Amino acid sequence: MTQTTKPKIIVSGIQPTGGLHLGNYIGAIRNYVTLQDEGRCFYFLADLHAITQPHVPAELHAQTREMAAALIACGVDPDKAVLFNQARVPAHAELCWLLNGTARMGWLNRMTQWKDKAGKNSEGQSVGLFTYPVLQSADVLLYQATHVPVGEDQKQHIELIRDIANKFHHDFAPDVFTVPEPLIPAIGARIMSLRDGKAKMSKSDPSDMSRINLSDSVDDIASKIKKAKTDPEPLPSDLAGLEGRAEARNLVGIYAALAGTSEADVLRDFGGQGFGSFKPALADLVVSIFAPITARFKELCADTDMLDAILVRGASRAREAAGPTLARTYEALGLVK
Ligand code: AQP
């Protein structure tokens, strides 16, 4: 089915494997909020993905609820978007299994996230970590998504979703799924660690100093930015001067993304100045955006009944929306008539 004839359907998820951080916010969640007024949105807490790595069962439910609070605090409106956790919608796991017959080992083997996470110990990883992108395909294809807002790290997985949908159409039946497009922000698509300009800012980084969390205090944010790794040179006046300076480029990119301006404009304002003056300005900007969200997040976290009710209602809406695609997939595979 061509997308031009269809209204926008937007689907994306976030793992409740830790707190929401600045990379998630700039790379994906800000976009979730904007897109709510542009189409039908399904935003989910990827708790089924979270169990592909070691986790503490007693903590997962609370973390899922907290991530729901974080999304709402950022501006996701559960009356506009369908907000739910995957585990309450069994169609995700079901469609994942059905698509396992179409996904190819070679495709999954090429995924850089798999290679990065498995490292030298691929034999010791869970099968779920390997087939993680097939579950992602199910997440997106179930709802006939036209667009998937994600950070740059997920671009390869969206390509894989497209490959799986196209192969399924070729092998079994046309037009069962919509082939989705990624929506990746022009600025801030890959926010890097504050400790290493070559590593992605991530919830799973063992160093808390590598990221700014939604739960951080104003002092934490100022201190993390003050201690962020940089080099001794002042900021250059143009983009060419950031060549080979990954940490400086990352901080300039964060500033530009949050100020809604370009990296070139940031350098026009701060070029020639040292990090001693740039870092406090960046910290003030981050605090001005995160502090109100953090305050709201803390209020929401206190109301667990309300958060559970939102997730139960979201799951019921998601189950209803997922039903027809799941049924068509069973039929196309010859499993039911
Ligand atoms: N550093 C980032 N810059 C821009 N976007 C990012 N995203 C994640 N990190 C960055 C985007 O946020 C959404 C949720 O992704 P996730 O739940 O996989 O987030 P994470 O922080 O990367 O989580 P983990 O558990 O720590 O996973 P790994 O180990 O993969 O890093 C996605 O849209 C993602 O693109």
The CATH superfamily of the largest domain is HUPs
- CATH classification class of the largest domain: Alpha Beta
Shape: globular
Annotated CATH architecture of the largest domain: 3-Layer(aba) Sandwich
Characterization of the model:
The protein has 337 residues and is mainly α. The protein folds into two domains: 3-190 and 304-332, Rossmann fold (3-Layer(aba) Sandwich), CATH 3.40.50; 208-298, Tyrosyl-Transfer RNA Synthetase, CATH 1.10.240.10. 52% of the residues lie in helices and 7% in strands. It has a three-stranded parallel beta sheet. It has a two-stranded parallel sheet with strand order 4-5. Helix 3 packs across helix 13 (275-301) and helix 10 runs antiparallel to helix 13 (275-301). The longest helix has 29 residues, at 304-332. It is globular and about 70 Å long. The model has no long low-confidence stretch (mean pLDDT 96). Adenosine-5'-tetraphosphate binds at residues 14-15, 17, 23-24, 26-28, 113, 150-151, 153-154, 189-191, 200-204.
Outline the secondary-structure elements.
Layout: E1 9-14, H1 22-35, E2 40-45, H2 47-50, H3 57-74, E3 82-85, H4 91-100, H5 105-109, H6 112-118, H7 127-130, H8 132-141, E4 147-149, H9 155-171, E5 181-183, H10 218-226, H11 246-259, H12 263-270, H13 275-301, H14 304-332
The protein binds adenosine-5'-tetraphosphate.
Task: Please summarize what this structure is.
With 337 residues, the protein is mainly alpha-helical. It has 14 helices and five strands.
